[in-house]
Amino acid sequence: WWRCACDPLDTHLYFLRSLANFFRYPTMGVLEKIKEIELEMSRTQKNKATEYHLGQLKAKLAKLRTSLLEPAKGSSGEGVGFDVSRYGHGRVALIGFPSVGKSTLLSTLTGTDSEAAAYEFTTLTCIPGVIHYNDSKIQLLDLPGIIEGASEGKGRGRQVIAVAKSSDLIMMVLDASKHESDNHRQILTRELEACGLRLNKTPPQIYFKKKKSGGVTFNSTVPLTKIDEKMVNQILYEYKLHHCELLFREDVTVDDLIDTIEGNRKYIRCLYVYNKADIISLEEVDALMRTPNSVAISCYMKLGLEYLMERVWDAMGLVRVYTKKAGHKPDFSQPIILSEDRGGTQVEHFCIQLHRDLAKQLAYASVWGTSSKHYPQRCGAPHQLEDEDVVQVVKKKKVQTDNSELRGRFRCTSDEPKRIADRVKKAALKT
């Protein structure tokens, strides 16, 4: 207002700029707003002076992408998606561009017939298959190929990514002959992250709690080098959070804080599978194999499939546990499969797999295997089991509390009332 009293030209410019900012975003759709913010972020230089502005833009972008994933208001009925029921001890989703060999990989590993042809978009729906490996059953889903812009709904991309969110592991199938010229891996990672998936990452160590009053409480147990209190307040103001509690237990970035506030991110492991490795040189295969979380295979010549299954087993964290009765040999025919994503790998979760009431009756468990220090080792419910352990469960001794079945000298109490007034008086003797 003080500028209005100084110069009429400044007054006019100030009014036009405010009017433009007010009508800039409401007149656009959600996709146009996202593109406008992405363009502004690409044109903004990254330095100390612009880091707060970029933080606000990232918060606005995350809010718009979240609203894009939500169903439209007033829409009736359910959307059309891929309805595939869970089966087995784990679920693996095949994600990739069209014509990279996803259907061929499914047919090779599971024996399920999935149509494969020389043209793109051969697979139009979700085709499930089951891999039998190490006495376990792993569900493998062949999804239609996605294209750039799948997070915005192009080519049924949202339905494909929604199925990937429900998986325990993502296998991103790529073409090994195009790994240098095309940036397919970066495009797919960007599309998945735009829909809330975080590949090969762990949740940030941030404690966040909304409150009704009291303002913003900001604390940290470690020095913060990538974010400060001013930027935190700006991001909270963008989300209209004026009363909350924040505790940082590690040095995090602005993106980690936004993910914590949103609360709808899925952290999932991803394995990058480079198919058609038989048409590139050995030096290129060696370079791909040395890349983290990457495997080079050939479905046509069936090369590297056994090593691929070993990497899938390790990435999913599956654990085989064998049972043993007292006085008998272990039963190695049918193990109990545990995983960290589905319950856990402790002795308590092993007992729940056998019977839901067995964990309450557990006295201790005798464990043979790599998780024990000696054979056997008496372990409690929190003990972490490892692959191919042998467990013998010992239940608590049942304590007899009801005296109705006990007789004679084995009875602990009498049937007489404790109070004298409650005792039945004997009849008087006849004289």
Strand content: 15-25%
How many helical elements?
A: 11
Structural class category: alpha/beta
User: Count of DSSP E strands?
Assistant: 15
Contiguous low-pLDDT stretches (5 residues minimum) are 1-6
Shape: extended
Cα distance spanning the termini: 117 Å
Order of helices and strands: HHHEHEEHEHEEEHEHEHEHEEHEEE
The percentage helix is 25-40%
Radius of gyration based on Cα positions: 31 Å
Residue-averaged pLDDT: 81
Largest sheet: 7 strands, mixed
Q: In short, what is this structure?
A:
With 431 residues, the chain is of the alpha/beta class.
Describe it.
The chain is an alpha/beta fold and 431 residues long. The protein has helices at 8-24, 30-43, 51-69, 102-110, 157-165, 184-194, 229-238, 254-262, 282-289, 305-316, 347-354, and strands at residues 90-96, 127-133, 136-142, 169-175, 197-199, 206-210, 216-220, 244-248, 266-275, 294-296, 318-323, 331-339, 362-368, 377-379, 389-395. The strands form 3 sheets. Strands 1, 2, 3, 4, 5, 9 and 10 form a 7-stranded mixed sheet that branches. Strands 12-11-15-13-14 form a 5-stranded mixed sheet. Strands 6-8-7 form a 3-stranded mixed sheet, covered by helices on one side. A hairpin with an 8-residue loop joins strand 13 and strand 14 (377-379). The longest helix has 19 residues, at 51-69. Mean pLDDT is 81; it is low at 1-6.
Helices and strands in order, then pairings?
Blueprint (H helix, E strand, L loop, with lengths): L7 H17 L5 H14 L7 H19 L20 E7 L5 H9 L16 E7 L2 E7 L14 H9 L3 E7 L8 H11 L2 E3 L6 E5 L5 E5 L8 H10 L5 E5 L5 H9 L3 E10 L6 H8 L4 E3 L8 H12 L1 E6 L7 E9 L7 H8 L7 E7 L8 E3 L9 E7 L36
Parallel strand pairs: 1-3, 1-4, 4-9, 5-9, 7-8, 9-10, 11-15
Antiparallel strand pairs: 2-3, 6-8, 11-12, 13-14, 13-15
